[in-house]
Each structure stands twice: as structure tokens, then as C-alpha cells.
Amino acid sequence: MGAQRVLQVADKSIKGNSQWVAALAHDPSGSMIATGGWDKSIRVFDVESGKVVLKIRGSLFTGHHDRVYGLRYSKDGRLLLSASGDRTAKVWDVQAQTCVKNMHGHTGDVKRAILSEDGNIILTASRDKTIKLWDWRVQN
What are the start and end residues of each WD repeat (predicted)? Predict the structure, then answer.
């Protein structure tokens, strides 16, 4: 006889995005989930309640003005990195709900952004076939 397949039903479903979700990250505590996608915004949900606790709308002045492709929390959960089709990556202070660093220099969509182990360097990967290293503590 063949092996049995067991399908698991999801324990919870969180809704609140207006378009496709392309990026997903959970904070180190596991209590928050950040989503980003085709609506150009970033939403942070409380896992327990499923409610939006932070929304960064896409716009020229506050958030991304193209799709969000990548999200990543810092080890301490204080910072959230985002990567976008607007050719930028941003560092967000989650508590202050502000962008603390805007990294531009790629000529294609930025698909991923990750933070180094020591938390000082951000690496971004782009459709322009480059990887860039940024010291996010240096002023723009």
C-alpha cells in the first residue's frame, strides 16, 4: 500500500491586505507578523487578535511607491527592513513607526534585504543583478 497523506487545516487565517501578499516576516517574539505586497503598503498584524497594529501606506513621502517584495525583522524586533519594486530598501523603526533609513542606488527592483549578524550592515539583492552592502547607521 502507498503512504497516506495527511492534510492539515490552518489554525488561523489573518486577512487585511487589499492585494496579493508578496512578503512576509514574523518578529522574534512571534507575536507580530508583517506583510507587504502589491498594494505598496506594509501591515503589521498582532498574531493573537489578527488585527492590524501598524500600517505604512505606499506613497512617495512615507512608504514605498511600488510593490513590496521583501521584509525582514532585526534580531531584537526593533527594526523592520523592506525591499521594493521602487528600487529602494528601507529601515523602519517599528515602535516609532518611522523610516530611519532609505537606501537607493539599485537600477532594478529590490527583491530582498537582510541584516548582518552584528546588525550594522544591510545587504540588498536586486533584479539589476547586483548585491549592495549598506552601513545603515551612516546618514543619507
Answer: 14-55, 61-102, 103-140
Distance from C-alpha of 34 to C-alpha of 117, rounded to nearest angstrom: 21
DSSP state of 65: S
pTM over 0.90: no
Number of domains comprising the chain = 1
pLDDT of residue 19: 85
Q: DSSP class of residue 108?
A: S
The greatest distance separating any two alpha carbons of the chain, rounded to the nearest whole angstrom, comes to 64
Q: What is the pLDDT of residues 100-115, one digit of tens each?
A: 999 999 999 999 999 9
Q: What is the CATH number of the domain that holds 51?
A: 2.130.10.10
In a domain, 69, yes or no: yes
Pairing mode, if any, of strands 32-37 and 21-26?
antiparallel
Alpha-carbon gap, residue 96 to 62, rounded angstroms: 13
What is the spatial distance between Cα 38 and Cα 29, in angstroms, rounded to a whole number?
26
Report residue 44: phi and psi, to 5°: -115, 125
Domain span including residue 129: 21-135
Size of the chain in residues: 140
